[in-house]
Amino acid sequence: MQPLERRQAVIVLDFGSQYSRLITRRVRECHVYSELVAANTTLAQLQEHTHLAIKGFILSGGPSSVYDEQAPACDPAILYSGLPVLGICYGMQLLAHQLGGHVAPASGRREYGPATLETLVDPIGDPRYFRIFEDIGASPAQTNPLNQPGVATPLRMPVWMSHGDSVDKLPAGFKVLACTESNPVTAIANEQGMVGLQFHPEVTHTLQGKEIIQNFLFRICGCEPSWTTGSVIEEAVEQIRQRVGKERVICGLSGGVDSAVAALLVHRAVGDQLTCVFVDTGCLRAGEREQVVDTFARHLHIPLVVVDAHKRFLARLADVIDPEQKRKIIGEEFIRVFEEEAARLEEQGGPITLLAQGTLYPDVIESTSHDTAATATRIKTHHNVGGLPEEMALKLVEPLRMLFKDEVREIGLALGLPEDWVWRHPFPGPGLAIRIIGAVDEERLETLRAADAIVIEEIQHAGIYRELGQAFAVLTPLQSVGVMGDGRTYANVVAVRAVTTGDFMTADWARLSPDLLARISHRIVNEVPGVNRVVYDITSKPPATIEWE
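^ thats the sequence. predicted structure below, dont judge the formating
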């Protein structure tokens, strides 16, 4: 096997900002690989990842003050590694504090929201200090001069602030690059590539934030824009070949794009050593099973085995209400079914020791969220991450583990997955079981399946399916009084959820038209037995998750 080429990477240290994951995404959008790691990760730990050629670090923002008793700090070895470091918001304050500067409560008023930045350093006289703002022109939303003493023609741009403390004494070797009306120290840098920004370049409110991040990546870190769909596929295929060798693999298909792309990558890498297994848990969407068989067996010609296991899954889920318990039961049962199927397939061609699945980076992050503590805080267990049993006969192959959803879709298109499949809305591995709030049984599944099909049909008919990140129905544990015909009813309440999102780490509720909502409600109440009320979820992520359980 050819050794894999080391991948250039910029590491984001997560100090608890709501934007930490967004920083990682912004770096990848510039075609540079990035990983989000816990704030207390050491340089020595990162250097154990010999497949990465680390080119620089980004210290995220966070809710702490550097003087808090439990304030997270950066490993000093990272700051003295000689590699470029970009500190954002709290990250800038931490950079200054740990390198010998001083941080104090903000002079003047605190800054939250929009502000005007104005540069103070001459780009010609101090080119190495000014690299973070190099070749950035006047903002399309040109702002008024601040009348600050500085260079003759300063750069002015709108930026997004969110801080109380600020730097009031610089570390040795640093210069102030920019100020705002409220903060005389808004950007700092030294000649060695250490940069601090009190504002957030990763958010869209900082209009030229992308150019600022690009300057850090390309002018300061010296990265190459080599993180492309083609390079990801090539590297993933080689990694799968090294992982699998001559062994046989089964891949669990869920009906979603993630497991489908994982299967295509494994098939490209090892061909007929792969057999796909689709488990009918009884918790599938309408027409799911037929669609999977048609796409994989008839169009993509990948060996596929369908296992009807709905009775055993529903038996295990009987009377289970807790969503975490549902996920763990389903995760364990999936593995047991795969193990049994692997043992059966062994009779046809030798032992199967590997299980491929479509775990994504957000799944990993949400199952063990970094936050700012040494011990992780779980948001929710994903059935194919935290929901796996401790003892497994099969070893995992997860080619998408470090990828976001939009990256997976690009790979799927490049590998020939049908476009309508690539753009299918995500469907959780546990299926409708976690869209039923409360106990799961066949009657409630049929109710939800019918309501969910109506939601999707109407959204597709309205021509907005691709505009939405996800849309589905939820069967709540509530019942309400209604009137149908001349009689009183006491029946189920169905909730409709539709969101817009880019990376599924954050999401906003979709502003569906009143006419569309009316059609969805009218059809569900009239066509789905046992439902007499429909409500619409208008909560964003955060504070809510996209799924209800």
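Residues 323-349 form the longest helix (27 residues).
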